[in-house]
């Protein structure tokens, strides 16, 4: 047996891809090795909560800070997400264990204590990172039916504080809160030279950091004598067991209860523990990503099966239309009946015909606002291609959470550089619909959708700035967005429009009558509002489970990395939108209603309405009662949801519109018109 030459080459390429995929860690960044005793920098980031969408900077609360706080560089994606990082006062050295180190002692006013308490009530958590690894509390998870099979799961960050337990609360103070003022950092490392193939006689090349864990404590520290500020970080605290150095154990102590009435002093301390780990550098993110794989795989597959059932149902309807109904229509209209009897029957049916062929002279009649339809067609093409490229790169692993901000940066990059197909598609339909003002259509393609999104984003950014939230984007980032918009995206759209207008108009199979045909009264279930309700319901039913996981990941501040499932669900969504649009379009044409242009767009785009309603339900089900009707919190959440739903409306609408256009072009090109 001899394999064809082309097949041999394809197999060789596939083997190389598999080999190289195992040879290096594609999603991450370049590893850094730390020598024994070398200082490692622990960075502080944000304060986030699962009770409210508002996000704040770490130093928004009066935590201990170094003499000079340095804002660390960030990419565009991090800036848009508000993931700012700063230097901290925490000090650690590779493989040097230290216990009960003093961070600072600060005196807080009643207002500052109340601020700490407010953040504790809303369950805010502190995010930090070390060597690009996020800090996390680690717990063991097991299914009820398999208690012996435990999996280590994470909870990003650590809580600012918690409610005081009943046994620790003083009489009459059941609603007291304590602050976590002592942190035990457990840092896992993996020696560079620990691999089987390493040379044992070679000098020590350092260690990789492969884990960053924390255990918070609330301790009302005590000390003897007068406080010595110059002794920090090695102050002697009587609450820390010493033999003769601190051992990591504590003497009997009370929790550090917040006193918003009188204020008071708080001593912040921390431990540094180093532990050797067998986890290799390339696998250090597995613990953050495996939770969704362990807990959600079955539900994901259930969602896929559910979506496929809906898709198969719609595909069956479309196949029925195309193979049985349309084939019969084609045969009758093209007069291919085999016998005189059948010809007579066909002629009788033709006289009584009230089907889709009767509107052939109006089906390509220009709709209202043709330039706007062309603009949204171009923008929909831009969003569709952007989504496909983003999912491709995410599925291949380039947009791993290890590359912070990579997902948002990639979405912006692909949107900007896909201006060429946007301008091209808009120009082609502008020419088809005989819209004379080509420049107006082109400029609207480049400014309408991004302009609406930018205005909404600017208003939301102003709200975040008023609340001093870390999600507020700096002015410099807004300038960069404007430069990408007008300096890159808009010129590319004009280039695509230039190429589109140079081509001949899209040929249509039938001529349009000079006088519009009167549309007969439509039954209630063929009215536009009913079509919109039906058109969005089935596609939403195919994707709502995956939408639940995405919203939950964002709300709970977990990493979403199931891009393979997401790509499959998106593929199902595109097919479902296309098929439901074709089915409804055919029903309307059979009722002699040829106004399909905008109806096809609105029918598929209506999935965004269901997504917005579901996101609203998600907010009121998850948010703290105090955030339900907080104007600023609601504005931020629903504002960003509106931007997302607007994009989905344009993308899904474009899919439905293009599917109906191809369907109508095909069926009217397959019949003979007398």
Structure characterization notes:
- This protein is of the alpha+beta class and 674 residues long.
- The protein has 16 helices and 16 strands.
- Strands 1, 2, 3, 5, 6 and 9 form a 6-stranded antiparallel sheet that branches. Strands 4-16-12-13 form a 4-stranded mixed sheet. The protein has a two-stranded antiparallel ribbon with strand order 7-8.
- α11 runs parallel beside α13 (597-605), α11 runs parallel beside α14 (607-622) and α12 (563-590) packs across α16.
- The longest helix has 48 residues, at 286-333.
- The model is unreliable at 1-28 (pLDDT under 50).
List the keywords.
674 residues; alpha+beta; 6-stranded antiparallel beta sheet; 4-stranded mixed beta sheet; 16% strand; disordered N terminus
SS summary, helix count:
16
Q: Helicity range of the residues? A: 40-55%
Describe the sheet with the most strands. 6 strands, antiparallel
What does the overall shape look like?
Answer: elongated
Structural class: alpha+beta
Described by its quaternary structure, the protein is: single chain
**Rg from alpha-carbon coordinates:** 31 Å
Strand segment count: 16
Strand fraction: 15-25%
User: Segments where pLDDT lies below 50 for 5+ residues?
Assistant: 1-28
The span between the termini is 57 Å
Mean pLDDT equals 83
């Amino acid at each position: 047996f001899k394999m064809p030459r082309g097949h041999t080459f394809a197999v060789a390429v596939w083997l190389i891809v598999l080999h190289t995929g195992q040879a290096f860690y594609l999603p991450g960044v370049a590893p850094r090795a730390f020598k024994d005793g070398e200082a490692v920098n622990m960075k502080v980031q944000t304060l986030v909560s699962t009770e409210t969408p508002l996000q704040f900077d770490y130093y928004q609360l009066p935590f201990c800070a170094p003499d000079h706080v340095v804002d660390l560089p960030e990419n565009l994606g991090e800036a848009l997400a508000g993931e700012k990082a700063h230097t901290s006062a925490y000090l650690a050295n590779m493989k040097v264990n230290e216990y009960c180190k003093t961070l600072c002692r600060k005196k807080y006013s009643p207002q500052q204590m109340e601020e700490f308490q407010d953040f504790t009530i809303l369950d805010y958590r502190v995010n930090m990172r070390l060597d690009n690894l996020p800090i996390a509390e680690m717990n063991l998870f097991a299914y009820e039916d398999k208690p012996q099979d435990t999996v280590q799961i994470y909870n990003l960050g650590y809580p600012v504080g918690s409610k005081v337990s009943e046994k620790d609360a003083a009489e009459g103070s059941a609603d007291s809160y304590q602050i976590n003022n002592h942190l035990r950092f457990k840092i896992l490392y993996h020696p560079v030279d620990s691999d089987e193939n390493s040379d044992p006689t070679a000098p020590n090349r350092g260690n990789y950091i492969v884990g960053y864990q924390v255990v918070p404590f609330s301790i009302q520290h005590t000390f003897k004598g007068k406080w010595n500020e110059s002794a920090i970080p090695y102050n002697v605290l009587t609450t820390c067991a010493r033999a003769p150095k601190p051992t990591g154990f504590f003497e009997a102590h009370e929790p550090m209860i917040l006193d918003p009435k009188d204020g008071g002093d708080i001593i912040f301390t921390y431990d540094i523990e180093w532990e050797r780990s067998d986890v290799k550098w390339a696998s250090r993110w597995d613990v953050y990503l495996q939770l969704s794989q362990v807990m959600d795989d079955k539900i994901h597959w259930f969602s896929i099966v559910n979506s496929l059932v809906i898709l198969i149902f719609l595909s069956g309807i479309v196949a029925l239309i195309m193979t049985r109904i349309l084939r019969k229509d084609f045969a009758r209209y093209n007069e291919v009946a085999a016998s005189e009897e059948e010809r007579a029957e066909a002629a009788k049916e033709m006289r009584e015909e009230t089907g889709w062929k009767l509107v052939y002279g109006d089906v390509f009649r220009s709709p209202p606002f043709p330039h706007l339809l062309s603009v949204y067609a171009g923008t929909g093409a831009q969003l569709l291609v952007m989504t496909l490229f983003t999912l491709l790169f995410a599925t291949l692993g380039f947009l791993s959470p290890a590359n912070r901000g990579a997902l948002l940066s990639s979405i912006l990059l692909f949107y900007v550089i896909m201006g060429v197909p946007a301008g091209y598609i808009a120009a082609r339909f502008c020419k088809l619909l005989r819209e004379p003002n080509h420049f107006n259509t082109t400029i609207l393609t480049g400014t309408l959708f991004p302009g609406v999104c930018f205005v909404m984003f600017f208003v939301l950014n102003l709200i975040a700035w008023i609340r001093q939230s870390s999600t507020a984007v700096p002015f410099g980032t807004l300038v960069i967005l404007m430069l990408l918009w007008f300096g890159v995206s808009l010129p590319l759209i004009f280039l695509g429009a230039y190429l589109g207008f140079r081509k001949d108009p899209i040929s249509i199979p039938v001529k349009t009558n000079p006088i519009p045909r009167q549309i007969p009264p439509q039954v209630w279930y063929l009215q536009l509002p009913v079509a919109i309700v039906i058109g969005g319901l089935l596609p939403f039913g195919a994707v709502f489970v995956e939408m639940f996981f995405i919203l939950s990941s964002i709300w709970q501040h977990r990493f979403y990395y199931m891009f393979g499932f997401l790509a499959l669900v998106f593929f199902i969504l595109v097919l479902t939108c296309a098929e439901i649009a074709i089915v409804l379009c055919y029903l309307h044409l059979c009722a002699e209603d040829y106004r399909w242009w905008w109806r096809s767009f609105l029918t598929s785009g209506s999935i965004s309405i269901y997504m917005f309603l579901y996101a609203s339900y998600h907010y009121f089900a998850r948010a703290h009662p105090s955030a339900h009707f907080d104007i600023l919190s609601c504005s931020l959440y629903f504002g960003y949801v509106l931007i997302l739903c607007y994009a989905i409306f344009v993308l899904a609408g474009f899919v439905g519109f293009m599917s109906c256009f191809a369907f109508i072009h095909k069926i009217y090109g397959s019949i003979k018109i007398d």
